[in-house]
Design a protein that fits this description.
328 residues; 7% strand; globular; alpha+beta; 4-stranded antiparallel β-sheet
Length: 328
């Protein structure tokens, strides 16, 4: 038997690496009903209370204000020598809105940097370390590579004018056609407003629809662990807490929006019967994006002009999905 295949089998048998963070976490999959209580943002009187479901980070002026809308519970295991959260540490982040609740679990484990280093810039030791720490990433490496391509510009491989998920999010921002509603809070039009929320939800919805919720959750968690491991312990510096653009307010909002994006992805996967052989025509892509926009319209109470199959970005990204998924 090939040595790499043998190592994979051995690691699967002896090492646990679940999709959420390499450790066994409470079962919190899917959306559940929730009581209209303290953590129901539809009852909140702050600017955040004017939206439903997905969140806008620009509606919050402090971490304390965010905590009036979402609930965070920290479970800290053994502390390492550098004061970072140790084994079995995780944070539970809950958001109840309009009678429905999503729950995100972020735990210690493999990060985006670990995966990138093993796949692109590391040594054989880095690859073996990833294999034993998280065989899930190794087993799903082909899908991870496809998602990486969909998430990044690569004109050398896919031609000039190559697009990524963020371009679809940018197009949705440009489709907003109710400035009298969208500009009530000027900060919403900055990079950390509509664009950031649309970007996270668009990517997570597509990954969930085209691959699985498990893989979407794995990628989201690996990204957050890499950039801000403090999210797991809640031990932030004062400077981090005050940093509304890159600090915990922004990142906890991203974590919640990832969950809402996954729920949308599951619904649209069922609606359009999306599977590994789906032909992503411009018509399908336009319909998919218009469904996302309908959700944004409901959540943020703004209007949009629709995507059309003949839109240049729709045609280009449709072609890219075909190329990435099937080599067409």
């Amino acid at each position: 038997m090939h040595i790499l295949r043998l190592l994979v089998l051995v690691s699967i048998v002896f090492i646990s690496c679940n999709q959420a963070g390499d450790k066994t976490l409470p079962n919190t999959s899917g959306v559940t009903a929730c009581n209209a209580g303290v953590h129901n943002d539809s009852l909140n009187t702050t600017p955040s209370g004017k939206i439903r479901g997905a969140l806008l980070g620009t509606r919050f002026t402090s971490l304390q204000e965010l905590k009036s809308v979402i609930q965070m519970e920290y479970h800290v295991g053994a502390i390492t020598a550098d004061s970072m959260p140790g084994e079995n540490s995780f944070v539970s982040v809950r958001h109840c809105s309009n009678g429905r609740e999503v729950v995100a679990m972020l735990a210690t484990g493999t990060s985006q940097g670990d995966i990138y280093k093993a796949g692109y810039s590391g040594s054989i030791v880095d690859r073996l370390r990833l294999l034993f720490r998280c065989p899930y990433a190794v087993i799903n490496r082909k899908d991870l590579e496809r998602i990486y391509d969909l998430s990044r510009w690569n004109p050398e491989k896919y031609g000039g004018g190559d697009l990524a998920f963020l371009d679809l999010a940018k197009a949705a921002v440009e489709n907003i056609n109710t400035p009298e509603l969208a500009l009530i809070n000027v900060r919403d039009t900055t990079e950390k407003g509509y664009f950031n929320s649309f970007n996270h939800m668009t990517a997570q919805a597509f990954i969930t629809s085209c691959f699985s919720e498990v893989l979407a959750d794995f990628i989201a968690d690996a990204h957050e662990r890499h950039n801000h491991p403090e999210l797991i312990s809640g031990k932030f510096t004062e400077a981090q807490i005050l940093d509304l653009k890159e600090g915990p307010v922004d990142n906890y909002v991203d974590i919640i929006n990832n969950e809402w994006g996954q729920e949308l992805g599951k619904q649209l996967k069922a609606k359009y019967s999306i599977n590994s052989e789906t032909n992503w025509t411009p018509t399908l892509l336009a319909d998919y994006m218009n469904d996302l926009q309908r959700y944004y319209s409901w959540a943020f109470q703004i209007g949009f002009k629709p995507f059309r199959p003949e839109d240049e970005r729709v045609r280009r990204f449709s072609s890219k999905i075909q190329a990435v998924m099937y080599g067409r």
